[in-house]
Inverse folding.
């Protein structure tokens, strides 16, 4: 198998923060901060995941100002259209130039009872509409104690990829639940120890080439001060950032990790 260079992906999951006007302000400031720093676009892919109600505004701004950020949504419906009040179809997201959609975030699993079966159905819905699913997996503190770090995320990813066609374009995000929003990130070594088996699941389910091309991200209390450590690990290809993605200077510094990675 030929060696594949994976473009690092730095993704900002805004969760339920920022209305559409605040979203525009943040995207403009982030763009200016990166331009001021003479950041080289293309060395890193940046993706933003605003709330649904911000997507149209952010899409318009990105297109008008030729900003090189990719757009993603935080969730989608398993259905394509119909009598599903409150749901958002992947079709609508594709029409708004979304490239990505987050699937199975632990907050959806926890607060909306999303099961592995729902996550698998949403993964297929995303692919059906040409969206790249960012499939989130991760263990709770209790899982960690009982089963170790990788068993639960591996099982969750196996379930999410059930029936997905070989070669599918996906992103995997390893987000230990105990690390999210806690200020207590996993160590780079801990992240690597789970991201490597997750890549093996992709190889098993989607084939070796897909596994070599798939970005596996780490998420959970990523900030400007710890991103470089994660990015040095061979199986960590980027980060899914929550809180720090709402702070322009912090997120710009995370995007510019290559400047402080020391390699
Ligand atoms: P924090 O970066 O705030 O810990 O959130 C991580 C996360 O859940 C991203 O999806």
């Amino acid at each position: 198998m030929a060696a594949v260079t994976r473009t690092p992906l730095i993704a900002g999951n805004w969760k339920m923060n920022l209305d559409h006007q605040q979203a525009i302000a943040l995207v403009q400031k982030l763009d200016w901060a990166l331009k001021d720093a003479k950041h080289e676009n293309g060395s890193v892919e940046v993706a933003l995941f605003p709330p649904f109600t911000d997507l149209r505004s952010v899409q318009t701004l990105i297109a008008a100002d030729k900003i090189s950020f990719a757009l993603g949504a935080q969730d989608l419906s398993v259905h394509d259209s119909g009598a599903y009040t409150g749901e958002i179809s992947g079709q609508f997201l594709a029409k708004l130039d979304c490239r990505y959609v987050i699937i199975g975030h632990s907050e959806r699993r926890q607060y909306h009872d999303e099961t592995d079966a729902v996550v698998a159905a949403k993964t297929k819905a995303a692919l059906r509409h040409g969206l790249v699913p960012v499939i989130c997996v991760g263990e709770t503190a209790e899982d960690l104690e009982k089963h170790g770090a990788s068993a639960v995320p591996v099982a969750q990813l196996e379930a999410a990829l059930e029936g997905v066609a070989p070669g599918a374009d996906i992103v995997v995000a390893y987000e230990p639940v105990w690390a999210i929003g806690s200020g207590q990130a996993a160590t780079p070594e801990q992240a690597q120890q789970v991201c490597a088996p997750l890549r093996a699941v992709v190889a098993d389910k989607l084939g070796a080439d897909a596994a070599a091309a798939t970005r596996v991200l780490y998420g959970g209390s990523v900030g400007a001060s710890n991103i470089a450590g994660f990015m040095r690990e061979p199986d960590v290809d980027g980060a899914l950032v929550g809180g720090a993605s709402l702070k322009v200077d912090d997120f710009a510094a995370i995007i510019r990790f290559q400047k402080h990675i020391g390699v």
Observations:
- The chain has a mean pLDDT of 96.
- The CA atoms of residues 99 and 131 lie 5 Å apart.
- Residues 13, 105, 175, 180-181, 219-222, 240-244 surround 1,3-dihydroxyacetonephosphate (CB under 6 Å).
- The radius of gyration is 17 Å.
